[in-house]
Amino acid sequence: MKPEKNIPDDLLSKHLEQNLNAQEQEQLEAWLGDADENQAELNDLETIWNAAEGAAELDGLDVDADWNAVSGQLKDAAPEAKVRKLSWVTIAAAAAAIFLFSTSILQMFNTTSPSVQQYALADGTKVWVKEGTNFTAPESFDGNQRVVQLKGKAYFDVAENPNKPFIIKTENGGEITVLGTSFNVQTSPKTTEVIVKTGKVQLADKAGKNAIQMEANERGIYREGDLEKDYNENPNFQSWRTGNFVFDNTPLNEVVWNLSTFYKKPIVLADSNIDCNLTAFFQRENISTILETLEKSCALKSKEQDGEYVLYR
Description:
- The chain is of the alpha+beta class.
- Helix content is 28%, strand content 32%.
- The chain folds into three domains: 9-100, no CATH class; 108-231, Jelly Rolls (Sandwich); 239-312, Phage tail protein beta-alpha-beta fold (3-Layer(bab) Sandwich).
- The protein contains eight helices and 19 strands.
């Protein structure tokens, strides 16, 4: 049986509205498993949809004209991306993205490269985007705000502009507001985590009624409607992009977890009860040097198995 190369438009639309039944969810997952391009296409549609405030805000918009506009912009922004005309729900999402970003061209950075990608935005802000992350920004920032969308993990060095706040809308409804600072953001469907390196950052809930403010070395978390703040105790929160790691009497399970954020194959322990603390500094070392250090420091052996590096005794 040949894999299904196409999928009904109404099923994709129902997915965007979170209205699939169990059978339809299985059909969607089967289609996603057929080809990597299908997942990339769905990611692009979700990014556009998340940029919208909702279809109810679209009264009076010419959705057909807006779909034509956004599809052309997607071709310009990502020449290799697929663009297909979908049902009215998906077209409405595209129209809402156009509405949200005014007349600015929507740039979609769907990062599939195995390395971290760096982008410079129109205002001078620099963004480092991790593999598998969807990041969306307008070609120019019009109006009195600088609004972008993030689904995944990125590090921001925001150009200072006290008169035009920089706002990051996340997939779970959390909203991050800054004027000029540097910080790390990681999102998931239920959680947004912000770790501040310099300056001040505000993290608000979806309704915008509750918010917390963080300064350097503080961490904020938005999880299922709740906000919390604490001190960041992980010196390696930027290591996924820099490749530099500092360990000071750090338990081995934390060491391998941090290392796995940068190296493409995970490093795992064959036995979670292996007792060893590591003090070391790595500066973009190759994986063989990393494994050799771990072996010698903790009296371990290593092997490559099923796409992972396994440490054992």
